[in-house]
Sequence to fold (309 residues):
Amino acid sequence: MLKRICDFIARWMGVLVLVSAVVALLWPELFSGIKPTVINPLLGLVMFGMGLTLRLEDFKIVFSRPKDVITGCLAQFFIMPLLALLLTRIFGLSDELALGVVLVGCCPGGTASNVITYLAKGDVALSVGMTGVSTLLAPFLTPLLTWLLAGHRVNVDMVSMFLSILWVVILPIVLGLFVRKGLPKFTERVVAYLPAFSSLAIAAIVVIVVSANAAKLMVGGLLIIAIVMLHNLCGLGLGYLIGHVLKLEHKKRVAISVEVGMQNSGLASALAAAHFAVYPLATVPGAIFSVWHNISGAIVARLYSRNIK
Fold:
């Protein structure tokens, strides 16, 4: 019975995330006691679960094929920033909202992309490698690209970003790998329930983000929501297209697609609040992206997982 419930949750992840977002948006006071600080621990637990499904050989493959990682990172910092600039000009956004969209586009891939790649049955090790590399490059490329595209210089603390990816992604995965090696029977029992746990964790993260930014999301309006959705969907599509053009296998295409389309939008909102306080609406695109890319990620995970070859 428990296995059936978990299968049902994983299968209907997109609906679960959407319902969670709507409830948090309409009744944010229900979740006022939940602090955003629990987001990283939640992601860390999901990453630990992912680690239970990986082997050291998976990471050896990443380091033996740096071309794949470099391809993904180049796509990440080329497609999304230019898409952001193009959309802000096509729709004539105000300076505040345009800055927010550009910030989202210039940020590295988010840790949630690893979770979605895992659920989509893509190349998780490649996704983790691209997230790590793009995050390490972000202290240099995010300020530069934001300055080039939005006319502003953004100061990013490279050490804190490095520690974030270390504690939230790398360490939990390493722990998961050790647990798998030391407790193989335990790992076999829990692996079947991990997709459902990941789905619930993502839904919880969406609730936290939406409820904390409900007022800003209402102010942003339908136009900025549509732009954020287009930004994400175009990134997902172009990422997969690049993999297709390069004749990569389906799992690699999925990893690149998800990594390109899903941004560290929480970082974008944080940078907007910290460095552009005079433009309060600049935090809105990041908040909307945080919700939408988990919904779209759940949908494409379901679609991609059906096309494993």
Observations:
- The chain has a mean pLDDT of 82.
- Residues 214-245 form the longest helix (32 residues).
